[in-house]
Design goal:
10 strands, two-stranded antiparallel sheet, 328 residues, Rossmann fold, 14 helices
């Protein structure tokens, strides 16, 4: 197996390109594909400051590394979600990456800053864990990017992620979500510019990039993502990709080229009804934004169900009078 570029021994095959690559030219491919996406969708200009949302996983750390290699001024943002050992370990990987490369990492602890973590907050607010997690992260991402004066917020969504989301949104024809499914969401009042520079790269390629660049990352999947529909969508799309390499790329980029504009009006209609949140000032279609409602429910005192107290043995004869809890 020879590298397509230099004919030296190859270390990876890229089936959608029908080509193999050595270490040097595979790493160049990843950077070139990221640079191509940035140019194609007008994500960044030279000299822009980028805030990279990092989770300690392969995609976000690879993205941070690639942006630095491409010459951008990129800082990281890590959010401690309070998901037990998983959050502890993912935070360590993010800190180690930043320390080894002398990069700036901003950290926000959900429990310390807002009084709740994802496991307890989702139960208290009666939200699915992934819903509470995503809502919390989006709010903190926006706030950190705006407060820090960054030109864009970058997330590590790869092609597999985008294809699974598009598949799910299309299955249910969720037009509001389809209206916002694009590699770039422009900055607007109360929201920073959001970009997905890894849109042309597969998850497998990001894992290989990290191995070759000696980037340590957390291997475990989030324990609270069990049962998430997007995992099943990814598996289904993987089977299609196996039979027809390049199908995910065609699916996603075909949507961008031929269908995305048809749903743009749905997203624009939402902007027309946004107003500042009465609590935090973030844009919202209602008086109080969804994040503040979540935080309020998650930090409110919760009723505790008490077990009935056992009656102590009485020296009096005759039946004892039942306590109030027993009659309830």
């Amino acid at each position: 197996m020879k590298c397509r570029v230099c004919r030296e021994p190859a270390i990876i095959d890229i089936r959608r390109h029908n080509a193999n690559f050595c270490t040097e030219h595979f790493l160049r491919l990843c950077r070139d594909q990221t640079a191509k996406a940035i140019k194609e969708f007008d994500m960044l200009d030279e000299g822009d400051r980028v805030l990279v949302a990092v989770s300690g996983g392969k995609d976000s750390l690879a993205l941070w590394d690639i942006l630095i290699e491409l010459g951008y001024q990129a800082d990281g943002l890590y959010i401690g979600l309070g998901i037990g050992d998983y959050s502890d370990e993912s935070g360590d990987f993010a800190r180690d990456f930043a320390r080894q490369r002398d990069l700036k990492l901003i950290e926000v602890d959900l429990l310390r800053e807002y009084g709740y973590d994802v496991p307890h907050g989702s139960r208290a607010a009666k939200r699915a864990p992934c819903s509470a997690c995503g809502l919390s992260k989006r709010h903190i991402f926006d706030k950190a990017a705006l407060d820090g004066g960054y030109d864009a917020l970058a997330t590590g969504h790869n092609l597999d992620d985008e294809a699974a989301v598009l598949f799910g949104n299309t299955l249910r024809w969720q037009v509001d979500y389809l209206g916002r499914q694009h590699p770039v969401l422009p900055a607007r009042s109360g929201f920073p510019k959001k970009i997905k520079p890894l849109i042309r790269l597969y998850e497998r390629e990001m894992a290989a990039y990290c191995v070759l660049q000696n980037i340590d990352y957390i291997l475990e999947e989030c324990p609270m993502a069990v049962g998430n529909k997007h995992i099943a969508y990814k598996e289904a799309l993987n089977q299609i990709e196996l039979q027809s390499p390049g199908s995910k790329l065609d699916f996603v980029f075909g949507f961008f080229a031929r269908a995305a504009e048809r749903f743009a009006s749905s997203d624009a209609a939402i902007d027309d009804v946004l107003a500042p949140c009465t609590t935090c000032g973030a844009p919202t279609p209602s008086g109080e934004c969804a994040f503040c409602r979540l935080a309020e429910r998650a930090t409110a005192a919760q009723p505790v169900r008490l077990s009935p107290r056992r009656e102590k043995t009485s020296v009096r004869s005759g039946p004892s009078t039942p306590s109030e809890p027993d009659r309830a």
